[in-house]
Amino acid sequence: MKSFLPSMFYYGFPVVLLTTIDKDGNADVTPISCNFTLGTNAVIALVKLNKAYHNVMEVPEVVFNLPSAEMWEKVEAIAPYTAQNPVPPQKAGKYVYTDDKFAIGGFTQLPSEKVCVPRIAECPIQAEAVVKQVNDRDTYALIELEFVQVHAEDHLVMEENKINPLAWEPLIYNFKHYYGLGEHKGLNFTIK
Questions:
Q1: What is the DSSP track for 4-65?
Q2: Which of 52, 154, 163, 178 lies 20 to 30 Å from 96 when distance is taken between CA atoms?
Q3: Tens place of pLDDT for every residue, the chain, 192 residues?
Q4: b vs e for 72-111, b when ≥16 Cβ sit within 10 Å of the residue's Cβ?
Q5: Backbone angles phi, psi at 66, to 5 degrees
Q6: What is the pTM of this model?
């Protein structure tokens, strides 16, 4: 066994296509994978340079849109884009501004039931949430949320209110690679 401290220790998390809106009602979608859930609560980390962070500060509601493993190319299609205008100097050269990542990813907006943020129709699971607390750090924030409504495709639901883990194949982001049920799906080319 070797002992070391890697420059990046990001050992695999489910991908979330996080939808947010700004105070003017403009929707954005941001792929994130730094998240965990417990019961009806979740914690996410958002970099303060991202439009999603600014949107959450203006409108404290989000939707977790959970893509299936087969959607990795749609997620990767929006990865090199930012809705932050102008593009922050730290992102220049890696990201390009767009005001419509939904179109680039081929995503359809659906209205939510309990929050004002849209859902993504193509995602088999969507979870509406409200922000409960923001814990600021130097360059990012840890955001605590509470789920208020979950939507799932019929074949994924068992016992009327549980996700069937045998039917659900989440997209996992693991050390710059996408996986689904252990199968390599592709490489994220935009993260340096």
A1: ---S-----EE-EEEEEE-TT--EEEEEE--EEEETTEEEEEEETTSHHHHHHHHS-EEEEE
A2: 178
A3: 978 787 767 667 899 999 999 999 999 999 998 899 999 999 999 999 999 999 999 999 999 999 999 999 999 999 999 998 999 898 888 999 999 999 999 999 999 999 999 999 999 999 999 999 999 999 999 999 999 999 999 999 999 999 999 999 998 887 667 767 665 666 665 543
A4: bebbbbbbbbbbbeebeeebeeebeebeebbeebebeebe
A5: -95, 110
A6: 0.90
